[in-house]
Amino acid sequence: MRTYPPYAKSEVVRRYISLYQMYEDFESKEPTTVCLYECGMYYGGPEEGGWYYERGFPIRTVCVFSKKQAIKEAIDLEAYARSEIGEDTDSLGWATYRVCYDDKYATSYPEVRPRYE
Prior knowledge:
Layout: H1 6-27, E1 33-45, E2 51-63, H2 67-84, E3 97-102
Antiparallel strand pairs: 1-2, 1-3
Helix pairs in contact: 1-2
């Protein structure tokens, strides 16, 4: 497990507290899981000069029962991702993993490949 330097840990904690509060505001309930996804950008097609979309593949889901536990698990999953997956962005600046709060198990997204319309 990767440990964070003291200055970075407070930033990470603040970020996951903020994400928790945003989840509560938008969903009007507390999250019951914390999910880790490996993400990548995929070529969608040549329309409009080319476009890309994000795909996510589930790595881990942790069930949580309190706000404190949810924030702790999110921080632990990010530390795990950084140690196992590596840097949090690829050469183009796109995320290579995502930790998020949810109320269900992690599943691959999108379910159907997007089409340009």
